[in-house]
């Protein structure tokens, strides 16, 4: 059964990453948050737990089957909007400088369309990624992409980055 569940559901954010997201969300009163890759809503729940009553969270996933689980558990929270869409398509539809926090937990907005994800972060806002340390579900060839992504963030003059060799491997980038 455990193996079946592992195959059916995406890798959920681990508790230490969730606690970090919750703290960052709490630092943005009346903030606008964006998650790319809702999955079943683990990180969504952490973000909501950090947000104040005036903050909002939009969470995007291309797979309505997993997102329906998040909807069932968290959909009654009026601060949350679940969007069933491709992450890069969603990012392209947004104005620049829109979000106080972007958690990119899909290939979209991370390895694909990074520039669109960074463009929607407000000055002073956070762009957060995890799974920078080796993960059991990485496909062949993925490991080589990780230092390239971190290098792109480090070289971006509009962001200051904090790479954390901690939990699943996290980078917090702050828009200047
Ligand atoms: C690592 S899981 C997200 C885990 C989730 N944030 C959590 O904490 O439980 C990645 C998710 O990205 C979604 N995804 C994959 N490709 C996508 C795309 N092009 N656009 C949006 N979401 C995508 C998958 O359906 C999957 O649910």
Short description:
By secondary structure, this protein is an alpha/beta fold. 35% of the residues lie in helices and 24% in strands.
Please supply descriptive tags for the structure shown above.
35% helix; 7 strands; 176 residues; alpha/beta; 24% strand; 7-stranded mixed sheet; binds S-adenosylmethionine; Rossmann fold
Write the layout of secondary structure elements.
Layout: H1 2-8, H2 15-26, E1 32-36, H3 42-50, E2 56-61, H4 64-74, E3 80-84, H5 87-92, E4 99-104, H6 114-119, E5 121-129, H7 145-155, E6 159-164, E7 170-175
Parallel strand pairs: 1-2, 1-4, 2-3, 4-5
Antiparallel strand pairs: 5-7, 6-7
Helix pairs in contact: 2-3
Bound molecules: S-adenosylmethionine.
Net shape: globular
Note the main sheet: 7 strands, mixed
CATH superfamily: Vaccinia Virus protein VP39
Helicity, as a percent range: 25-40%
Low-confidence stretches: 1-7
């Amino acid at each position: 059964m455990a193996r079946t569940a592992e195959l059916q559901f995406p890798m959920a954010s681990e508790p230490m990453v969730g606690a970090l997201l919750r703290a960052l969300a709490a630092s943005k009163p009346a903030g606008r948050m964006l998650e790319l890759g809702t999955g079943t809503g683990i990180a969504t729940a952490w973000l909501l737990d950090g947000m104040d009553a005036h903050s909002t969270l939009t969470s995007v996933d291309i797979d309505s089957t997993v997102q329906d689980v998040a909807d069932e558990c968290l959909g009654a929270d009026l601060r949350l909007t679940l969007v069933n869409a491709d992450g890069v398509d969603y990012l392209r539809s947004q104005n620049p400088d829109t979000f106080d926090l972007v958690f990119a937990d899909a290939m979209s907005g991370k390895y694909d369309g990074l520039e669109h994800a960074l463009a929607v972060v407000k000055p002073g806002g956070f762009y957060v990624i995890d799974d920078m340390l080796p993960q059991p579900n990485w496909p062949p060839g993925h490991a080589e992409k990780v230092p390239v992504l971190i290098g792109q963030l480090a070289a971006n003059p509009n962001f200051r980055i904090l790479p954390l060799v901690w939990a699943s491997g996290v980078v917090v980038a702050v828009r200047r």
